[in-house]
């Protein structure tokens, strides 16, 4: 009985620690200098400095904001897992042709889970004519 109680306390401690780490990750803000214009959903955003953060306690909604606060965009994302923790904080863009970029993924250094933005209808249309390549932009945590 005592052994079961200790096991239960150990499991609960691990769950609380994991929940605490997850809550901290929700409130991180990523800052990146994007050297090209890009699209989120159907909205084109100019090159510049942007922050990306999760909205409230939502695990799906991301807020993409230009540091001048002129460009503000919300996007829905899904969890993305990796076998290894991300070595750097990065934003991943899909490039179609020479100059059509779509924000695709967000990774935080040290985490084995990232966020995958949903492919918009606009991106799906562009993908009919071009094969995508990934472009990685280094970012930092605020």
Structural description of this entry:
- The termini are far apart.
- Residues 5-25 have low confidence and may be disordered.
- The chain has a 9-stranded antiparallel β-sheet. Strands 2-3 form a two-stranded antiparallel ribbon.
- The chain has one domain (2-141).
- The protein contains 2 helices and 11 strands, in the order H-E-E-E-E-E-E-E-E-E-H-E-E.
- By secondary structure, it is an alpha+beta fold.
- The longest helix is centred in the N-terminal third of the chain and has 25 residues, at 2-26.
- The protein has helices at residues 2-26, 121-127, and strands at residues 29-34, 38-40, 43-45, 48-54, 61-66, 72-81, 90-96, 100-107, 113-117, 133-138, 140-141.
Short note summarizing the structure:
This protein is of the alpha+beta class. The protein has helices at 2-26, 121-127; strands at residues 29-34, 38-40, 43-45, 48-54, 61-66, 72-81, 90-96, 100-107, 113-117, 133-138, 140-141.
């Amino acid at each position: 009985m005592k052994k079961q109680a200790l096991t239960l306390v150990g499991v609960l401690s691990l769950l609380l620690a994991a929940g605490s780490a997850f809550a901290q990750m929700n409130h991180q803000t990523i800052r990146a200098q994007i050297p090209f214009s890009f699209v989120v959903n159907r909205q084109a955003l100019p090159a510049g400095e942007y922050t990306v953060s999760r909205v409230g306690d939502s695990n799906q909604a991301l807020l993409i904001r230009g540091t001048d606060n002129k460009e503000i965009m919300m996007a829905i994302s899904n969890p993305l897992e990796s076998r290894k923790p991300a070595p750097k904080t990065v934003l991943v863009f899909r490039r179609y042709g020479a100059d059509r970029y779509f924000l695709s993924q967000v990774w935080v250094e040290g985490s084995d889970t990232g966020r995958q933005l949903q492919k918009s209808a606009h991106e799906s249309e562009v993908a009919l004519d071009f094969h995508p390549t990934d472009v990685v932009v280094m970012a930092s945590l605020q």
